[in-house]
Prior knowledge:
Helix content is about 15%, strand content about 45%. It is built from 8 helices and 29 strands. It has an 11-stranded antiparallel beta sheet. Strands 17-18-19-20-21-22 form a 6-stranded antiparallel beta sheet. The longest helix has 21 residues.
Amino acid sequence: MLLKKYLLLIVSVIGIAVGILSGCGEKEYWQDEHSRKKWAEAKQALSAVAGIWQKVEETVLCPMGDYPEYGGGEDLVSYFQDRYPDMYRLSAYLWGEDTLWNIEESMFEDIFYEVESPDGIRGFFRENGKVHEIFSENGSAYDESVQGTKQDLGYDYYPFFTWKKEGEGNTSQSNYLTDVHDYMREIGDGKGLRIQAEAVKRELREKISGEQEKDNAYQIKVYEEKGLLQEIQVNVTQEEESPFLFEDFNADGYQDLTVVCYLGTFGCSVKHYIYNPVQRIFVELDPEFECYADYVVDPKSRRLYMYSYGIAITGREAVFQWKGWADYEMVKQFMHDETQEGIRVKVVRYEEEEENVLCDYLYSHEEYLDRTDIWGTYLEDFIWEKEVTDRSTGRNYTIRYAEVFQEEAESNQGSCYDRRIYVYDEDTYLVRVTHSENPSKSGAIEWEDGAGNRAQAVVIHDADGGKSTFYLSRLIRPDDQYGKK
Length: 485
């Protein structure tokens, strides 16, 4: 606490001193004997603290006038919006560590603010009810030379209050001290909604690691212009971040509500509330989507890719296809389980409610980690496949074909199609993947069984009239390093 007071004195004295030359300061505080004595004491105390003195020495404070007592946050936003109309983010920090868990009234006496706008980041410091803008020694606004001032002065890493503008008509405001979150959202139907989430039950508990986390019960209220539309209650275990997200989870063009109920090392528990444009309410999805580590939504295909991870390499991925605003079906599933013998890989494709196993094989640890093409069995959208028999050995294989358009390809110096032929043996082991680039999209794909003395081959006809031939004898040749024993 003593170090902090010394730092505040130094910042104030230097700020006003340099501010006089730039028009910011009003009094020459360093002229009185008491200030000169405090200056000397602080400088001596800080001389042994590497880095801090130089940072503070470069900081200049420009008084901005009185600031009203901190309230619910709207007065704070208005104060800075009046001065910076283009502001799109505001963050406020209390002095000290872990202030979100241990609140003292004295912490509100000095607050650090960060304002982000198209002009860059501005820093502000409130001391004894007055706000000062932070400049660097060269007179520029909150630039790199004072980016670390907030931490150097002992302020918390996490803000206790945030306000963000996220596009036209979309704002979010969070008070982490009271656990109240307020959102204005354009959902997608041309009408805005206001969503308020307030913690109606708050408990603080200590984790095994010794850190603290909150167990909150939130009451979520959804408003339109006419009044209250809906109420939702959800339990959340959180740390410093807001648990509420808005995203188009089902790729139907409307914003949905996602609540992160728990975030752990290997995954999270999430509740998804899909927006019903007819009833104008949020509807909770099935628990099937609650426990995944991560997910990606493809708005063009309306596919949902979900990832879940366990210990080490073990995990599960799944692809879902949205059919309506709340209807969906699983398209593919990928399970990879680590054992002492290796990695058990199983990829399943679902077609008309039938399960088609593309791969079910135990790879060695080394091969699984080195051969990224093994994941291709799950990631690729195969557009052609054929079960064939090698006439020379009598062994059966499954050949699958996929192609991916590439905007830039080094070999073609422009766009092309990456053609990929996957070959699996009878045990669904991935024998080989053959890649080739072609500027033209494929047309018809044929299998030539090699009548007479002709060799067996896959023939890919090009859209421009050409064709490419891939002989089976080469397609089934395993990699030099690997290969089924």
